[in-house]
Amino acid sequence: MHLGGEWNTSPLTGEHVKRAHEVVDAALSLGINLFDHADIYTMGKSEQVFGQVLKERPGLRERILLQSKCGIRFADEGAPGRYDFSREHIEGSVDGILSRLGVEFLDILLLHRPDPLMDPEEVADSFRRLKASGKVRHFGVSNMSAGQLKLLRASCDEPLVVNQLEMGLERIDWLETGVLVNQAAGAHSGFPEGTLEHCRLERIQLQAWGPLAQGLYSGRSLEGQSEPVRNTAALVGRLAEAKQTTREAIVLAWLMKHPAAIQPVIGSTDPRRIAACADSVRVQLTREEWFSLYVSSRGTRLP
User: Which of 5, 51, 119, 150 could cross-link 101 (Cys pair, CB 3.0–4.6 Å)?
Assistant: First the structure.
């Protein structure tokens, strides 16, 4: 998300390309081969700099999976920031993504955020055309509820293979919605009921964006943070010390212990932080440790 520098139109530099190579190397060294993009990231420069990496490393494209997203449009002279799932925008966005990455196809295209003016038939037609042209192999969504997934899938020939949602130790409403069934507190959860269950039943891969919470539990300053955040960060630290691993590994291991087989999207462009995630697939949290982190994060006992 932060490859290519600032979110503006300033040009790429050699330093941006160097950092992108370092990020790719750090990921590949851990066995990570899926790279998640979006057409808006750093105003398109994230894809552009990644495309430069691919150009400089013949053979890399065949070793990795490329995923990108479209559907968010920034404010311009004639309109505010908005979402756009029109045929013209989806297909035009894919052409732009492929051009910036310098590739012939995407492995996965995600619709970035729900468009309230979405016409499922129009989206389905775009998917058919993109698949037939060879430009996109698989399709998915981001930030959608079970109901939205069902509506879109009813018109699509192609299965939806991914739903990318904000999930992690800081953002726990995906758990709260299920735990607080038949509880008054459950009425205030912002996570759409049944979404996790629907994705599991339909074999839609759940991907978690923001799982590291920008270092909230792994070294970021906690000045001004709430007591539950401070307590949880301290607990993460104690578990990391006891298991002789990093705090990042504990945070991700907590997420991946959930039986939904959630894929964390690491997000960091710091090779050191990427490397710190390596142990997450090895660390085993007990049920008690998992619940200790969950209850600490929610700041109050379970009902």
Answer: 51
**Could you give the number of structural domains in the chain?**
1
Domain that holds residue 48: 1-159
Distances (CA, A) of 177 to 75, 245, 289: 33, 31, 21
Residue 105 lies in a domain: yes
Q: Kindly state whether residue 131 falls inside one of the protein's structural domains.
A: yes
Is residue 272 a part of any domain in this protein? no
Q: Is 160 helix (H, G, I), strand (E, B) or coil?
A: strand
Flag residues of the chain having pLDDT under 70: none
Beta bridge partners of 162: 205
In terms of C-beta density within 10 A (0-12 exposed, 13-18 middle, 19 or more buried), how is residue 151 classed?
middle
This prediction's pTM: 0.95
Contacts of 112 (CB under 8 A, 6+ apart): 38, 40, 69, 70, 71, 72, 83, 142, 143
Can you give the CATH number for the domain in which 72 is found? 3.20.20.100
Going from the C-alpha of 197 to that of each of 26, 89, 172, the distances in angstroms are: 33, 31, 16
Active centre residues (catalytic)? 41
Query: Residue 57 falls within a domain, yes or no?
Result: yes
How many other C-beta atoms lie within 10 A of the C-beta of residue 171?
A: 19
pLDDT digits (tens, 9 = 90+) for 205-246: 999 999 999 999 999 999 999 999 999 999 999 999 999 999
